[in-house]
C-alpha cells in the first residue's frame, strides 16, 4: 500500500486509546521490537526521528527545522495533502510543540533520503512504509505510532541500547602483552 501523507485525525477516547495502545504493544512484540519512549511534549515525532538519526532526542528542534526546510523547498510535493493555506501550515509546523503528522514524516523521509517504517496502532493498518523521493541511504528509520496520540523510536530487541557501554576485558597472552576485547555489558 502506497503511503499517502495526511494530517492528524481525531484524538481517540480513553477507551479507544487504551485498546489502541495494547494493539501497538502486541504488534511490537510480534516484530520483536522495543520502544524507546520519548517525551510527550508535542515534539514526540521530531524527538523520535532525532533518536533514530542521532541516537538522542535532543536534536528534535534541528530535525523539525530540516523538515520545515524540505516542506518549503518543494511545496508542490506536499501542499495537496494539507487542508489549509500552505503558508499557515508551514508557520504552524515551525513552532516547537506542534504535533507532526504524516506530511511531516514524508518530508523527513525526503529530506534525509531514508525509508521510514511506522508500526501503528490502527486497526486496519499494521505498519506504514514511507519512501523518500530519492533514497540516499539503505538505513531504515523505525517509529511506533500510537494513533493519534504519540510517536516513539523503536529498535530490534537484540540491538543493545545506546546507553550501554562496551566494557573492555583484558586478556593475558603468552607474550604478556595485554590486548583489549570488546564485549557488551
UniProtKB/TrEMBL annotation:
Its EC number is 3.4.19.12. Pfam families: OTU (PF02338). Keywords: Hydrolase, Ubl conjugation pathway. Residues 33-157 form the OTU domain. CDD domains: OTU_plant_OTU9-like. It catalyses: Thiol-dependent hydrolysis of ester, thioester, amide, peptide and isopeptide bonds formed by the C-terminal Gly of ubiquitin (a 76-residue protein attached to proteins as an intracellular targeting signal). GO terms for biological process: protein deubiquitination. One of its GO terms (molecular function) is cysteine-type deubiquitinase activity. Belongs to the peptidase C85 family. This is ubiquitinyl hydrolase 1.
Amino acid at each position: 500500500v502506497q503511503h499517502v501523507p495526511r494530517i492528524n485525525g481525531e484524538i481517540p477516547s480513553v477507551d479507544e486509546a487504551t485498546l489502541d495502545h495494547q494493539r501497538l504493544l502486541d504488534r511490537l512484540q510480534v516484530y520483536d521490537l522495543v520502544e524507546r519512549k520519548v517525551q510527550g511534549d508535542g515534539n514526540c515525532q521530531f524527538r523520535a526521528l532525532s533518536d533514530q538519526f542521532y541516537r538522542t532526542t535532543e536534536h528534535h528542534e534541528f530535525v523539525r527545522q530540516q523538515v520545515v526546510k524540505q516542506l518549503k523547498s518543494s511545496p508542490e510535493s506536499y501542499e495537496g495533502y494539507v487542508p489549509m493555506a500552505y503558508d499557515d501550515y508551514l508557520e504552524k509546523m515551525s513552532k516547537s510543540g506542534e504535533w507532526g503528522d504524516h506530511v511531516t514524516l514524508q518530508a523527513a523521509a525526503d529530506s534525509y533520503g531514508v525509508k521510514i517504517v511506522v508500526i501503528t496502532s490502527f486497526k486496519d493498518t499494521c505498519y506504514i512504509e514511507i519512501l523518500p523521493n530519492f533514497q540516499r541511504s539503505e538505513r531504515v528509520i523505525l517509529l511506533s505510532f500510537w494513533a493519534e496520540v504519540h510517536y516513539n523510536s523503536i529498535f530490534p530487541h537484540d540491538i543493545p541500547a545506546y546507553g550501554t557501554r562496551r566494557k573492555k576485558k583484558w586478556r593475558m597472552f603468552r607474550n604478556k602483552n595485554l590486548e583489549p576485547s570488546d564485549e557488551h555489558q
